Amino acid sequence: MRLDELQPIIVAGLDYAVIPDYNNKLIQEKNRVGEHNQIQLTLEVCVDIPLLLQAQTLLHELFHAIGAVYMEGRLLDEVDVAALSQGFFQVLRDNPDLVEFLTNPTVEPANDYTEVLASTLGDLSTEEPCS
Q: How is the chain split into domains, by residue range?
């Protein structure tokens, strides 16, 4: 998947548009490869960098967006965002089962729990009713 194929990313009910920077504006004008804009609800990422760095940069900018919304205006500094986004990126990349569980948890059939309860508590149908 490419950056320009991403749908808006929802953060606290807000749709953040993912904007590929095809013209290197971020690098040339601001000496950076990504930018979060809380007013325009955009996450902009330079496309002239390797794909894995694009993904990591997008996650970095997404952490800025999450911080802006959920930390009630107490913005994380760049060191915090870099550490959290790089660490989270590594965990997601190295643990595909975790990503699958987080995004598509499988609900076990209800009768499995009934069987566990029955084996633990015994057959309740033979018990005398409580008075």
A: 3-119
